[in-house]
Amino acid sequence: MGLKNHTLIKRINRAKILNSIRRNGSVARAQIADQTGLDRKSVTNFVNALIEDELVKESGKQENVAGRPFTMLNFKPHYAAGIYIAPRHAQATLLDLHGNIIATFEEEYSFYPELPVLLTSLKQLLRQLVAIQQPDLGIGICMPGFLDVTNGIIIDSVNIPALKGFPFRDFLMDIVDFPVFFEEESRAVALAEKWFGVGQIYDDFVVVEVSEGIGAGFVNDRRLFKGAGQYAGEIGHLTIETNGIRCRCGNKGCLEAYASERAVVEQLGGFSARLCDLERDKINADQYFLTMNETGAKLAVGLAAIINILCPRIIIISGSVVDFFQSPLLDSIKRNLVARCLKSSLDQTQIMISELNGNNALGAATLPLSAVFEVPGYYYV
Ligand SMILES: [Zn+2]
Fold first, then answer.
1. Which CATH architecture has domain 3-75?
2. Which end of the chain is more exposed for a tag (fewer CB within 10 A), N or C?
3. Which 8-state DSSP code applies to residue 310?
4. What is the pLDDT of residues 155-174, one digit of tens each?
5. Longest dimension (CA), the chain
6. If we measure between CA atoms, which residue out of 185, 148, 180 comes closest to residue 165?
7. How many angstroms separate the CA atoms of 168 and 152, rounded?
8. How far apart are the CA of 355 and the centre of ligand 1, in A?
9. CA of 210 to the centre of ligand 1 (A)
10. What is the whole-number distance in angstroms between the Cα of residue 110 and the centre of ligand 1?
C-alpha cells in the first residue's frame, strides 16, 4: 500500500470515528468500534490522537448491561458559524460539533443594499457571534450569485449587484482569525438538508429554494453536484415564457420573474415588504388564492424540467415563498406537475416541504463542519 493510500485511509477512518461521536452525542470506544467496523486497537489509537488534538475528551463513565463501566467520549467545545447574506437581510447561525444550534442572529437592510451597508451588517453579525462563542472551526458564508468559492469573490449577482467583484476572503481574513469557506446559497440549503434534514436519509436529492431568488441544489451520492464553473442549479433563470416579462438577469420570461418573493409580493398588492412581514388577514382572499395558484403553476414548470431530466426520488422545496403559502402551494405545484411531467418520472418523485428553519445559514455552517467530518472526494457525511 502506497503512502498516499495509507494516509487517505487514516483520514477516512478518523472521520468515521468523529462521525460516530457526532451522531451519538456521547459514546464508548467499544461502541465506536462496532459502528465503524474498525478494530478496538485502531479506535484506541485514533481516539488518543483526537484527545491530543484537543478535539475529543473523556466524559465520565457509564455501565453496560453486565455492570461493567465504560469510559464515554465526547467532543471538546468547538464551534462553527454560518452566515447567509440575502438581498434584504443577513442571518448568522452558531453550531457546536454535534450540529446543535447555539445561537442565531439577523440583520435587516433595504433591497439592493450598497456594499458598506452589507459589510456593516456582516461585522455586526460577527461581533454577536464571537460574543457567544469563538467559531474556531471556521465561518461559512453563502450568498446568491455566481460565486468563485475558492477566493470568495462574487463574479455576478442578479439579486445583490453590490457584491460583484468584492474580495470577501481577503476582507474576512483581515478581521477574523478563523478559516473561512464560501458557497452559493441554494447549494448551501442542499447542504443543510444533507446534514440536518430529510437529506440525512437519502443519498440523492434535489433542493429548490424559492426566495428572493430561485435556485436548486443537487446532491448526488452525498456530494454536491456543482457543474462547470460551479454554477449548476440556476433554475430561476429557466425560460418559462418565450416572450415573457423582463427578469433582473436581463433575459425575458425567467421563472424568477414570476415566482420569486418579490414577484409574489407585487402580485399580492405591490407593497415592498418582505413576505414574512405581510399579514395574511389583510390580503384580499381571492388575490391570495390566485397568486398562490399562479405561483404553484409557474414553479411546476421549473420542477417539471428537473423531474423530466433527472427523475430524482426526492425534491425538497424551501424558502420564504414556500414558508408563506405552505402546503396549499405544494398542492398547487403537484396538481400542475401532472400536466407537465412524464407520468412514469413523476410517479418516482416525491416532493416535500423542508422541515428546517434558517436553512441557508445552517447550510453555510456545514462548510467548516465538512472540514472536520468529511474527506473531500472520498468520504461524505
Ligand atoms: Zn433571469
1. Orthogonal Bundle (1.10)
2. N
3. H
4. 988 889 999 999 999 999 99
5. 74
6. 148
7. 5
8. 28
9. 14
10. 21
Q: For the domain 79-190+360-373, what is the CATH code?
A: 3.30.420.40
Distance 358 CA to ligand 1 centre (A): 25
Give the position of cell 420570461.
253
End-to-end Cα, the chain, rounded Å = 26
Query: Which residues belong to CATH 3.30.420.40 in the chain?
Result: 79-190+360-373, 198-355
Listed as own residue / partner, the contacts of 115-120 with beta carbons closer than 8 Å and 24 or more positions apart are: 115/162, 115/163, 115/166, 118/85, 118/90, 118/160, 118/162, 118/163, 119/171
CA of 255 to the centre of ligand 1 (A): 7
Cell of 315: 425534491
Q: Measured between alpha carbons, how far is 361 from 135 in angstroms, rounded to an integer?
A: 14
Q: Does domain 198-355 have CATH number 3.30.1490.150?
A: no
> What does the pLDDT look like over 323-343, one tens digit per residue?
999 999 999 999 999 999 999
**Gap from CA of 252 to ligand 1 centroid (Å):** 7
Residue 73 corresponds to which cell in the numbers above? 467520549
- Residue that has been written with the C-alpha cell 448526488 in this structure: 220
Instruction: Report the separation in Å between the CA atom of 247 and the middle of ligand 1, taken as the mean of its atom positions.
Output: 5
Span from the CA of 249 to the centroid of ligand 1 (angstroms): 4
Task: Give the Å distance between the CA of 293 and the centre of ligand 1.
Answer: 21
